[in-house]
Amino acid sequence: MTGYERIKAAIAGEPTDKIPIMLHNFMVVAREAGLTMAQFRENPRAIADAFIRSVEKYEYDGVLVDIDTVTLAGACGVEVDFPRDEPARTRGGLLQSWEELKTLPPVNISGYKYVEIWCEAVRLIVDHFGNDICIRGNCDQAPFSLASMIRGMENWMTDLYLTEENLLFELLDYSMEATSQFIKLMSETGCHMTSNGDSPAGPEMVPADMFVKYSKPYIIKLANLAHSLGMDYVIHICGNTDIIIDQMIETGADGLELDYKTDTQKSFDMMKDKVTMFGNIDPSGVLALGSPELVHEKTIELLDIFSNTNYFVLNAGCAMPSSTPEENIRMFIKTAREYK
Predict the structure, then answer these.
(1) How does residue 340 score in pLDDT terms, banded at 50, 70 and 90?
(2) Half-sphere exposure for 91 (CA within 13 Å, toward CB)
(3) In angstroms, rounded to a whole number, what is the distance separating the alpha carbons of residues 190 and 119?
(4) What is the DSSP track for 216-268?
(5) What are phi and psi of 269, to 5 degrees?
(6) Among 234, 267, 259, which residue's Cα sits nearest to residue 318?
(7) The whole model's pTM is what?
(8) Domain residues of the chain, as ranges?
(9) How many helices (H) and strands (E) are present in the chain, helices listed first?
(10) pLDDT above 70 covers what percent of the chain?
(11) Strand partners, 136
């Protein structure tokens, strides 16, 4: 089977010849290519070549093309810092008051430099691999996460309790338009799968009922949009998501990329034969800082739990730090390839 065939089979719940592997490794990819994050984010050819070399080096099945974590926020006008050696980050919210919501310009992210670079990089990777490797063009923030950046995280968390719902939904709808535009642009690259992150909507940030009310309806729409464009859809939420896994399953996403803090056995029990698990080895404590022996041990523990379902793709539980050692990555993949 090709890498593409393995991951497509895992999405469909069909048997594979080997454990499918897709790494959340964009920072590792940049470092191993000898690029700073500044050099990486500015050049689609450099991004594509770095991912191509990484796939050829480690022989995993799926590329998760990520570049930064605030690209949509920048496209919507939020001020962004671009550190030399770290992913970009926002400087604060765009809306200082809710009165300013009415003055936001219509959403049009297509001319934003880093959206164009991101999509072109994915297109180049598709041109290189075709259907040999499953290519996942990540599309940055889901609407709840993007709204928190437009308003500013501290203000947004207060607004959830003190602001009129119609205003919250108006900003969420605005954010939805931005995320939808990114997914539509990404579909034009020819990639096979797309995804979003919505970590501020997770239980470590807000109560579960707020996820259900303010995040889940938009993820449902995004999954439906991706499907209508011929792509599979994955949602990622950082932190312990135990208490919302059932709600995440109901979004219609093809895959849930769960953080390592989520209880592995519980996630298996709830997701078994319903939706594909992407994850969820600790990227820092195990993959970056652990020994190869620890990587082997923790990978076996995870594979033992998910060995009773075909709905599984091995991945880290979040983005792998740039410092992740080569020997640990090789052990991670070797353990999966040799697993019986």
Answers:
(1) confident
(2) 9
(3) 10
(4) HHHHHHHHHHHHHTT-EEEEEE-S--GGGHHHHHTTT-SEEEE-TTS-HHHHH
(5) -60, -35
(6) 259
(7) 0.97
(8) 3-337
(9) 15, 10
(10) 100
(11) 64, 193
The pair of structure tokens assigned to 313 is 């793709």
Tens-place pLDDT, residues 167-203: 999 999 999 999 999 999 999 999 999 999 999 999 9
| CA 141/CA 209 separation, integer angstroms | 20
Task: Match domain 3-337 to its CATH number in 3.20.20.210, 2.60.120.260, 1.10.260.40, 3.60.15.10.
Answer: 3.20.20.210
Query: CA 295, CA 279: separation in Å to the nearest integer?
Result: 14
d(CA 22, CA 300): 17
Q: Would you say 6 and 61 are in contact if contact means Cβ atoms under 8 Å apart?
A: yes
Q: How far apart are CA 256 and CA 266, in angstroms?
A: 14
User: Do the Cβ atoms of 254 and 244 come closer than 8 Å?
Assistant: no
pLDDT per residue as tens digits for the range 262-299? 999 999 999 999 999 999 999 999 999 999 999 999 99
